[in-house]
Amino acid sequence: MADSSPLQPYLLIAYYEWMVDNGWTPQVLVDCSYTEVNVPQQFANDGKIVLNIAPEAVANFELNHNFLSFSARFSGKSLDIYIPMNSIVAIYARENDQGIMFSSNMYGDGDSPSSDDGNGDGDGPDDEPPTPPKGRPNLKVVK
Fold first, then answer.
1. Among 44-48, 57-61, 116-120, which stretch is predicted with the lowest mean pLDDT?
2. Which of 6, 24, 31, 55 lies at a CB distance of 3.0 to 4.6 Å from 19, suitable for a disulfide?
């Protein structure tokens, strides 16, 4: 059987478009332990960060099958964000928490976060992904 394309990028793109089309605010939950993740670590909590990726909140937005990148303001400073597709744990709408969490095998490339040392101690991508926070997120629009 031939290798198939990873499922996760297709689902992420579809959910993003569905949320934007419905006027909702798409947010991604990112595992910051992956080596190529470039996000403001000071805003991460327990190695994870939730980012608002609504069109009005970001600039230079690019979402494809390999990565998500954009520019956004954090504490008044514009930063370039780069997120490899396999480090995205979930996408959900701020207004109603509708979305999807991705299992570790949905990306399909076997890449692991930098903290996975292969010793089976539970710090790798084969663990159950965290549950996104319930209720309204604590993100603020900074102008």
1. 116-120
2. 24
